[in-house]
Amino acid sequence: METLRVLELYSGIGGMHYALKHSSKASAKSHSESGISGQVVAAIDINTTANQVYRHNFPGTPLWNRTIEGISLDEFQNLQFDMILMSPPCQPFTRLGRQRGIADPRTKSFLYILNLLPRLSPLPRFILLENVKGFESSSVRQYFVQILMECGYIFQEVMVSPTSVGIPNSRLRYFLMAKISTESICSKSKDLQMSLLPAETESSVEPSLSSPQKPVTSSLEKEEEMEDRVLYKLETTNDAQRKLNQNRNLSIRQIQDFLEPQENDDMDQYLVPSYVLLRYALILDIVKPICRRSICFTKGYGRYVEGTGSILQCDLETEIESVFKNLDQFSEEEKLQQLQGLKLRYFTPREVANIMGFPKSFSFPDQIPTRQRYKLLGNSLNVVVVTRLLHQLLSKW
Questions:
Q1: Cα–Cα distances in Å, from 190 out to 156, 182, 247, 274, 348?
Q2: Which of 358, 356, 361 has the alpha carbon at shortest distance from 382?
Q3: What is the DSSP letter of 122?
Q4: What are the tens digits of pLDDT across the range 301-312?
Q5: What pTM did the predictor assign?
Q6: Of the listed 90, 151, 291, 296, which one is catalytic?
Q7: Phi, psi torsion values for 283, nearest 5 degrees
Q8: Cα distance between residue 130 and residue 281, in whole Å
Q9: What is the pLDDT of residues 190-213, one digit of tens each?
Q10: 90: annotated active-site residue
Q11: Helices 383-396 & 15-31, crossing angle to 10 degrees?
């Protein structure tokens, strides 16, 4: 079996490494002795906390706590790597990050890699990059594509959410997969395709390198279906219908498949505090174990409320509509009593890791506090999605 030497840049807590291990196993099963395995010859990141977690889970992998710009061409060359896996800083491409692209100093390390790439000999055979929605329309992406074409790569770009591989979590991300080619550059134009999944809809189709995913649209069911439903939060009828449709998608697993045993004694520490219930109840994204949807878990989960991740309702006997109906007419004490009856809690870091595809063997060092665990997971990627893409990259190209 061929073993690829892999360079893992912006290695974080090791999501790419786990995906590589899993895709190598899948490749070996499907190709017998002709399968491809991967060995990470160096992981590089400047986040010392993330490095503690990486070292804890991959003690045998060389881990460089260095800035990428401080690593010379010769040092990279000496690694003799066949593949680059990377997830560069996403802030320059997000709405909150002001989408400054190349003008953002946080792109400096990635631009350094791009300037270094044509000088590597030989060129790495494979490249996989992950980033946020927004990267696809940035000047950095344009420059990246230009470098790839000049170096003779063919590549595929896709936007994929974990729901497309059956995971009940919306986390739309951009991926570029590239392979060195002997074809002439002009013949590659047909391969330069972008396939976008709209953020408000989800697909159950497995991402494919050979045939890009097409935009998926789902027709909303008649609005009359919503007439009996109480819009108990600050949401529109369309918001409520969209969530209802997501929960009906049987190709996506239920949240309960990713939860820890509910009888754990320490679960009370994850209950949503009273002040959060009173102040932010109307904007919480509340899901049940039987739901097939949840919103993206971000690095602010457990610290901030709006848009940082879903909250789990543990009391399944209480109808949530009955709690929120006429809630504004109650006194503060009555309101709190009503809300506490739902037993709302945060997902534990282990549960978030489960949803993000990290295997049971993954763990945090004991000294990493809960808030830091959420932050590290929020900055990570979905392992299952990357596993699927890597498997296809290695097996079909």
A1: 10, 15, 37, 56, 45
A2: 356
A3: S
A4: 999 998 899 999
A5: 0.85
A6: 90
A7: -115, 5
A8: 34
A9: 333 334 333 333 433 333 333 333
A10: yes
A11: 40
